[in-house]
TrEMBL record:
Keywords: Cell membrane, Cytoplasm, GTP-binding, Hydrolase, Membrane, Nucleotide-binding, Receptor. GO terms for molecular function: GTP binding; GTPase activity; signal recognition particle binding. This is Signal recognition particle receptor FtsY. GO terms for cellular component: cytoplasm; plasma membrane. It is a peripheral membrane protein. It comes from Lactobacillus acetotolerans.
Length: 305
């Protein structure tokens, strides 16, 4: 997966390069080795608890396997990274859910302004369109200036219709109209963009709840996915946001964007370990094709390239 390796270049320069340098320099596997490794993991935004857990497990495993050489230790750490990720779920739950008998499948995108919701929706609309699926977009971010136009531009580019409301329209009314239309047109997917004003958390959470209720009024089993979009380059801040949203909105998974521009790729593990939520998609650039399914093994191995 070339896109992965290319997209993660910066992460590799940061997290991966630091890991590589660390492994190139170490002489003996002693307590200092594990202390230094733990420090490196913390600096890469893996999170304190995760770093500690990973180091402890690596210490036991290295002893058990009597791993001493560089390559043996690298293998153990790659395996540990994948295990740590998989421990909180399995690779199956990383996949986006699609229920063919349950049309339209509604995907709700939430997250703070600038996280990459609109861009992710555009990219995903292209992916589904390329698969021959029918897609409808709902521009329910009526708050951020330019958000509706931005989604419309993606709709045009990809060739999928966008349902919009009047200026300052109630987001739930846009979602209602879009859901009705998606039902009528038997669309495979309805992708809903939402507002992400951070300044007024309570209003935002109420709004998201109202949107979820509105969808359920017409389609009791939807949304299929409620995805929290997080800017991966913000490191630990992304984790804090995830915890905030998780308290009030029932989430099914995460999208981590801007991993192409980040040296803080370790946050993927921190979020998975602390949130028990699967990372379903990663954003690796601004273009329509720069979206990939998350794969823990490619990710861990990619760190050492
Ligand atoms: P929203 O407010 O959550 O809808 O965020 P936008 O979709 O408008 O994205 C904010 C900015 O981040 C835009 O300039 C996007 O082009 C950019 N962006 C989104 N995803 C990615 C990504 O994966 N990589 C990079 N480099 N930029 C991204």
């Amino acid at each position: 997966t070339e896109l992965y390796e290319k997209g993660l270049e910066k992460t590799n320069k940061g997290f991966g390069a630091r890991l590589n340098k660390f492994f190139a320099q170490f002489r003996t596997v002693d307590e200092d080795f594990f202390d230094d490794l733990e420090e490196l993991l913390i600096e890469s935004d893996v999170g304190y608890e995760t770093a500690e857990e990973l180091t402890d497990e690596l210490r036991d495993e290295a002893k058990l396997k009597k791993a001493k050489s560089r390559d043996e230790l690298k293998q153990v750490i790659v395996q540990k990274l994948v295990d740590l990720y998989d421990k909180n779920g399995n690779s199956e739950d990383e996949k986006l859910i699609y229920r063919p008998d349950d049309k339209p499948n509604v995907y709700l995108f939430v997250g703070v302004n600038g996280a990459g919701k609109t861009t992710t929706i555009g990219k995903l609309a292209k992916r589904f369109k390329d698969q021959g699926k029918s897609v409808l977009l709902a521009a329910a971010d009526t708050f951020r200036v330019g958000a509706v136009e931005q989604l419309e531009a993606w709709g045009k580019r990809v060739g999928v219709p966008v349902v919009t409301g009047k200026a300052q329209a109630d987001p739930a009314s846009v979602v209602y109209d879009a859901t009705q239309r998606a039902i009528k047109e038997k669309a495979d997917y309805l992708l809903v963009d939402t507002a992400g004003r951070l300044q007024n958390k309570k209003n935002l959470m109420n709004e998201l709840e109202k949107i979820q209720r509105t969808i359920k009024k017409l389609l009791p089993d939807q949304p299929t996915e409620t995805l929290l979009v997080l800017d991966g380059s913000t490191g630990q801040n992304a984790l804090l946001q995830a915890k905030d949203f998780d308290k009030t909105t029932k989430l099914t998974g995460l999208v981590l964007t801007k991993l192409d521009g980040s040296s803080k790729g370790g946050v993927v593990l921190a979020i998975r370990n602390e949130m028990k939520l699967p990372v379903k998609l990663v954003g690796l650039g601004e273009k329509a094709g720069d979206l990939a399914d998350f794969d823990a093994a490619s990710y861990a191995i990619g760190l050492f390239h």
